[in-house]
């Protein structure tokens, strides 16, 4: 096909021209601003601020973590290219928390100590977030998580009865388990018509919380919990649990936890003879789950925050830019949310700088934190803004099902009490 | 449905794997009184060795029945090379050093091996799928046995029988027994103790490699950290069975596997114990059992009471 070849050539020359133009433009503006400034005040002369990223970049959850890192990087690059904030260059510094709360806290301390850091995106895990919140809050450094779903992080430990915001510097673009668990329960009970559930969790902040909110709603709807089990996340042998599932007569399994355990768990449940779907939250919504669970995972379900990124008109540009940037890893489940998290910080910086005559004020961190509370823009995942607890106002969720070795969206919706 | 027979089989299978790895701990300890904490990583490198043979040496689509023996050879070769290398370069120079020195070296080596695989094996930073044997599970009464577990069911007893024959009947095996009893006297009797120690490391590694292949077949995935927890469990099994005793290692493994599985399945059903049941508590119960055994039999289930030679 000659047309195809031509297209490639055309694209290639296009990239070359764009690159040349971009390089030229950057050089010119750099010269220009230096001339304008005349050396009177170095503050506005291309101040560089750092957006920190904390996520698991190695280990079992690295697929999700690297997607977060790359997406934030893309946001920063886009802001720099489009000169979203005049006179400010964004730089991204990513630290690896290995999904460990202790590492997360060390990283938070590092970010606080680096005076160039203006805000942080992350972490992935709710349990890691717990260890970081106070460190950031004491320093008035804003933190926006693209993935934390534990309700206590924003609404306090007694969130079911009395919502109290604990940390003013903590925000998230992900929907909480208070919505995600019940949403899954409604789908499983009403749409999938499953009435007997076996609930399993990993006893971590995220997993246990999700399992609890799911169980509550499922019982309210009239479903029956025929068994519960807590697995050891360090183990790979779930044969004892799988045998229990089989003898319980359950027609669906709900798992609160993440894909490194969910994959083998699903596989072993099916191998033991229970041909029933395993349902989980956004923690199992990753291609690695399907890889680990094997071909029997067809029909397994996961809920995830927001509408499918690939289907949103607002996300088309993000997906195209992500591909064009040539990142080695996929943007994974939280790519769009990470981009929006970073963009919320960028928008906040923009407001602070504009309010301060185009310069970053001395108490920039506190000002940026305040400004994030008020941001409102159309992001990759839809409208991005935060309520009085720091939670996203976007309550969209989607159910995905494993079909033909990939996650396919089944139903999108919002959870209503 | 009565799930007890199935849970017993689950426990025995898990225990057989602990046993295969525990043999390496117990043999090395029996001969040089070293707790080789890098043994879990030797198990891990064995699994990666088998995977390498499957992915990079054999042509795509090779039948598992043909591939499996070759994968085993690959696993054993890698594990033995790593173990013998560790003995030669990490432990032998420290043989006369205080006991804590080789122990710390072992922990360091364990970390180094994990990180080496993580850094240099392609895509080892996330779990890698291990090939599976085709064919459905086998049903025997109410018990289901997975195809991947059949290998473990066959390999564990055969390995054990070969080891027993080797240690009891061959010249090298008797040399090992002599060295374990008294290395200095054994040397005076003309036994090349250096060689015996290398053989002990190599044998332990070969069993760990078989365990590594069994792990891959059973769980369908391997990763660079798989040796850490399993190594600790196998070490526990070796202590439970009586460290230094090769039969003890296997028995200890089986007891530990059964204890964990039964605790996972049944503790929560005991009235008032719901909070202390489930798999998250299974390790606690396994260690309660270990403490109880050691209270009444400090030498372990099959261990002999020997004066500490330190």
TrEMBL record, chain B:
Its main location: membrane. InterPro entries: ABC_transp_permease, BCAA_transport_permease. The chain crosses the membrane at residues 12-35, 42-58, 64-86, 98-121, 150-168, 196-216, 247-268, 280-296. The keyword Ligase does not apply. Keywords: Amino-acid transport, Cell inner membrane, Cell membrane, Membrane, Transmembrane, Transmembrane helix, Transport. It is found in: Cell membrane. It is a multi-pass membrane protein. It comes from the Bacteria. It holds the Pfam family BPD_transp_2. Belongs to the binding-protein-dependent transport system permease family. LivHM subfamily. This is Branched-chain amino acid ABC transporter permease. It comes from Streptomyces tauricus. The lineage of its organism: Bacteria, Bacillati, Actinomycetota, Actinomycetes, Kitasatosporales.
